Structures are given as structure tokens and as C-alpha cells.
């Protein structure tokens, strides 16, 4: 699913024209040469590549050495900060006492703004890596860029030329992956490489110092992921998340655009040799043995299977890679899914990174008909002495699992006697797992939770509430009447994922708290409305599910994301629409919980209210936690970037961004100075203004 | 006192009272009508009752009767009690419940001078 995002924002309306806020736009340097330190780490570890027969012990030695060369701190070497994806930085120069003195050091503009055709379809969600003296990132349309981490000057860029037609739901590139070839000589081209996966489904590898394509990787630096997927339909099969490397194998899934057809591109997850780009293995859950090395001549990977659109986490110690899987195609109807799809949809799957074989899996929804894809990257932790991982879900449940076995280490309960509805009662599960340790999910909605600006729009929402089918969480889809899905498909926790402070023993989780108002549309009505899948007619940039054909199933789907009042654009349910909380890892208790996002940009009919009140807006994008006890986060639709005191939850600093801050921030250090950075690039679905800014702040020198 | 007296003594503000009266009737019909639908759907009775209060207020304002103020005050106090019972101190949730009714209360109270002249 979708990459999506988010949620509906309460309304939009732009505050402050972006360009005015930016005094220091970095000059774009086109020439590729720059002075880079040559201290690129070149571990001398034995090669462990993709070959399946590498002994586990060797693997573990290698990984330790590699990891040592790339600790988080001065660098931000992984999308999730460190290899464990904790988003925790040991830096502590910026504290709650001096954070108020932060000043903008530079603003870098990628220059990647939507063409007229792509207008309204940009959601870059960009998070750079910081390695040595460079920031490494991809723009919305996959231009790879390296900039000087202290000045914002561009060192190089490489544009793979992704066409607008490739934009699936939104133009998104969340990040890039760094890989050091353990066998290459230091300083050799592509000894250290930057790898991304693109919207037009390619893996692209370039040299970290020059941006020149790695000739030995695939075909002149490019591997075509459309290989063995089937007919090329631009925008149906796209990658928006950074691949991960587990012991020399580059692992990627892809986003299969939601809601189009049962006969959709496969959700196959593939591993490639990070040096050569050769296929190491494929995990096609529909034909795992047969297609492990690719499908037989003339065949394609099993179509319509669950995909992984979000970011995986590599565990080099155990040699596993953890895949948060999405749902099958199509999302809201399931009777015709295969047993294998039912087994792995919306599950966390641990694959052996060397072979692509399933080590274990943990399913969070049985027979998902709600588009409850796992959207968050899992975070690796030590839980009471056991190597464990934190798995957040869109329903808000937070599970802690044993990394080696997938067994839950915290209590998992079960909802029973759930309604099965009239559409496919034999398919809908009457039980579902829940976390009894911690959930971000709130109480079921009641009529009194309906909202508006006046009694009249509130009354209208109450009527909508009473007319809908709603029996709490996991209310099954219906067609004669709309049904309410709460939480909606944006979470709970989405791609921004959670941060973990291992020192304080806290999980920091931001979340959405909004329902969707849905209806299955009988095929005949869908045909009358002209709902056709992407392979028959190019899509328009409407929100995920707002009239998706689901061709091949008996129903199309209509989603009112965030359940907004059609007359005013106001949400039908009362605030907060999103929040952030700290959870005690030892007990699962909430330490603090607060709304995230002010009302300043939101109001009825899209008119900004300018109210600095913490209403709690929909939000997308994660946080960074520092050793000094600050949580940095944008994410909300108020276009603010803020620092929150991790002890109290109080906002201790904030600044206005020139565009939406729907991206994960980072923090890093150059020459002893700590920087914080976020991309202000906006988000079409969150209805925040589009931009191309990366902004860095630091304390005055 | 005659109608003639009323018209003469209030020609400056009488039209405003009548306008407010018609606004109350209109809002009352919408809220009462949709509120009736909500009652039929098994929902809150508040809107149906509030609609009746608004229509009554509007009719009485049109008649120039001070009773309009008392009826609306009762409606508003009922609204206040209901709103507190439903969501208490959740101020964002009070926005749709109390803001508009309170603005109407202020408008109705502003009619008191004109309505007093009518009574004289």
C-alpha cells in the first residue's frame, strides 16, 4: 500500500509564501568535484556477499566491523539513524536550556518541484543520510544529491530521469542507503556507494564522492525491478522507501498502487548483491520455492500478493531482515485471496538475508479488509536481555517480539466475537490480535465525538454517524450503508515509525487519531461512475481509496479519508487528530501524551485560524531523540518544526517551516557543532504546501 | 399601546429584531428538521428540542415579545447543561456546541432595549 500518508489534514491554506522565508538558499554547484575527506571507511572484513553459504559466525564478525565504522552520532548513516532504527542520537550539545538559541545555518533547495502534470502529487518525505562531511539524499523524483553538511553547498547530483508518469500515489523518496564494498580498494570508484530505489522501479547505485553511476552494478549502475513483474504500467509498481542491506544483500520491496485490481503486480521482495546488482534471491510468497531465483522463463512473480512498501530493518547479527508487509491487492475485499496471501498479509515477516527464506512471521490482522498495512519500520532493541524488536501498527498496537523467533515478549490479547458483516461473513475473521502491553488506539467513537464548527455541521456528522455501520474497531466493510473505520488507514503509526531512547527506556510514538468513512461500491455502480484501473486509464491524484475500482472483485471502494464534512472540509470527529506520547519500555505505561500540531494553519473552509493552540493535527513523519533529552519532530500539518522535552512532553522550541514538514528529521555533527535538519517538502495528502527545502539549524558559534 | 406606537418608537431597531427573529426561525427549522431525523435514527434529542426553542424564540421576536429573551435563555441554558454533560471541559469539543448558540444569545440580549420599549 500506499505510501501514503496521511491523513487528512484539517485543512489547508498556506501560510507564508515560502521563498520569503529563505535568505540563504545555497548555490547549486554543478561540477562534481569537491574536496572530500578520504576517510571513507573500508572495512577489511572478508566478503560475505550474497552467497547463501556464508557461515553465520563470519557474517556476524563482518557486520560488527562494518557497524563500528558507521555509528550514529556525528553521522546519521541509516534512514532510521542507526542500524537498529532507533532514531536516537548520542549528541547532546543542543539541550532544553539552549535550544531556544538555535539559528538557521543554511537552507538547501533541491530544485525538484512538481511540473504542471505532477502538481498536487508531491509527497517527498525526504530524510538524508549524513556520512563524513556529506548529506546524501534523494529528491521527490529520485535525483540523487550530495551536499556539504556544514554549508549546504551541493557537491554533486545524479538525475536518473524518472518520468512524471511513474508517480504512483505520490512522488516520494524517503531516503537512500549507503553501502561499503568490503572487497574494494579504498578510493576505488564505488568502494562506497549510495543506493536508492526509484518510482520507476529501478535500483540506482552511484559513487559517494562523485555521484557517478557504479558501472559494476547492474547495467551501468541500474537494476530494473520491473524484471519479471509483468506488463509495465507506469505508476502501478514503484519504490518509495530506501532499500536495506543485510550482510551484503540489498533488500527491497515495492509499493503496488492500492485499489486498482486483483490482477496487480506482485508484492515480491527481492535481495540483490549490493556490489553487482545480481539477484541473490526472491521471496514470492505465492511460489517461494519455484521463484526463489526468479520465475521460470515466460512467467512472472505471483500477482496480487501482499507487498512491502515501507522500510525494512536489517539485523546483521542474526542475518535476518524484518519486512513490515502490506495487504493483498485489493485491500477491501478478500474472499478470493490465496492461503499464502492470508498467511502473510499485514504481517511482519523475518527473512533469512542470505537465502530469502522465511524464518518466522507475526500477523497483526487476520484477513485484512481495512488497508491496515504495516507502515512503520521496526526498531531493534534489547528487551530485558533478549534481542527484540518494536513493531507498531496502524491500529496503534505496539508489539515487542523476540527477533530470533518472532514470539511476543509482551502480552498479546485477542478480540473475539467481532462482527462479520454481510458482504463476506465467511471470510471476515471474528477474532483479531491486540497488544495488551500498549496501544495508541483510543476508545471507540460515539455520537458525542462528532464535531464541526457550528451545531448544524456537527448535527450533520451525527446523522452520518447514525446512518453508518459501526461496531467499533474492525467493523467489516459494507455496501448498502457506509461503514466507519477507526483508526483509519493512516494509523496509529505510519511510515514515520517510532523512536526509542535506550538510555531512558522510552518509546516516542507520534500517531494519528482519525477515522475513515468508507463504502463498498457495487460493480455496476462503479462502472457507471467510470472507475477503471490504472492499466486502463491513467490515475488522477485523488486520495488513496477515493473511488478506487478494485477491478476483479465485486466491489469498488470509496474512502472519505479522515472523514471530513463535505460541506465545510472540517473533520467530523473532534480533536485531537493526532498526538505524540512517551511510553515506558519497562512497563508499557504512558509517561506523557499530548496533542501534536497547532491550529494555526487550520480552520473551517480552509481558512487558517492562526491560533497557536495545540489542537493536535493529523501528522506524518517520525521524530529524532537526542541524548540531551530532546525530541525533534515536524510531521503535523501546522508546518512547525519543534523540539519537545522528553521528560515532560512540553514544546521547548519551534520554528515555522516554508512548507510541510512531513519527513523524518535528523541530527548530526560537523567539526564539533551539532546540527538538526528536516526537509520541508510538503505533502499532497496532508494538504501542506509543497517545497524543496532542506533546512539545518545549530547553536550560534 | 398600539401597534402604531411600537412602530414609531422602535423604527431604528425593530427591523434588526425581526431579522434576528427570522434567522432564529430558519436555523430552528434546519436544526429541528435534521434533529428530528437524528431522533428517528436513534440519536440525541438535543437538536430537535433546540430547534423548537429557536423557532419559538424567532416567532416571539417577530411579535416583539420579551418572552423571546426568556425562551432563548432557557434554550441556551439547556444547551449549556447538555454540552457540559456530553463533553465537559473538552474545549475543542465545546466549539460547535457553545460558540454559535452563545453568539445568538448575545444578539438576543441586545434586543432587550427594543423589546422593552415595545412593552412600555
Fold blueprint:
The complex is a heterodimer of chains A (701) and B (120).
Chain A: H1 56-69, E1 88-89, E2 103-109, E3 129-131, E4 134-138, E5 144-148, E6 154-158, E7 177-180, E8 192-197, E9 202-207, E10 222-224, E11 237-238, E12 244-246, E13 249-252, E14 255-256, E15 269-273, E16 279-283, E17 313-315, E18 320-324, H2 339-344, E19 347-352, E20 358-363, E21 379-383, E22 386-392, E23 397-402, E24 412-415, E25 432-435, E26 438-439, H3 455-467, E27 483-485, E28 499-501, E29 506-512, E30 516-522, H4 523-528, E31 546-548, E32 555-560, E33 578-584, E34 590-595, E35 623-626, E36 630-633, E37 640-645, E38 651-656, E39 666-670, E40 673-680, E41 693-698
Parallel strand pairs in A: 1-35
Antiparallel strand pairs in A: 2-41, 3-4, 4-5, 5-6, 7-8, 8-9, 9-10, 11-14, 12-13, 13-15, 15-16, 17-18, 18-19, 19-20, 21-22, 22-23, 23-26, 24-25, 27-30, 28-29, 29-33, 30-32, 31-32, 33-34, 35-36, 36-37, 37-38, 39-40, 40-41
Chain B: H1 3-9, H2 14-40, H3 46-62, H4 67-87, H5 91-110, H6 112-119
Structural class of chain A: mainly beta
Task: Output the helix-strand order of chain B.
Answer: HHHHHH
Low-pLDDT parts of chain B are: 1-10
The residue-averaged pLDDT of chain B reads: 90
Overview of this protein structure:
The complex is a heterodimer of chains A (701) and B (120). Helix content of chain A is 6%, strand content 28%. With 701 residues, chain A is mostly beta strands. Chain A has one domain: Methanol Dehydrogenase, Chain A (8 Propeller). Chain A has a five-stranded mixed beta sheet, with no helix packed on it. A four-stranded antiparallel beta sheet of chain A has the order 2-41-40-39, with no helix packed on it. In chain A, a hairpin with a 5-residue loop joins strand 5 and strand 6. The longest helix of chain A is centred in the N-terminal third of the chain and has 14 residues, at 56-69. By secondary structure, chain B is mainly α. Chain B has one domain (3-119). Chain B contains six helices and no strands. In chain B, helix 2 (14-40) packs antiparallel against helix 3 (46-62) and helix 4 runs antiparallel to helix 5. Chain B is globular. Mean pLDDT of chain B is 90; it is low at 1-10. Chains A and B meet through helix 3 of A and helix 2 and helix 5 of B.
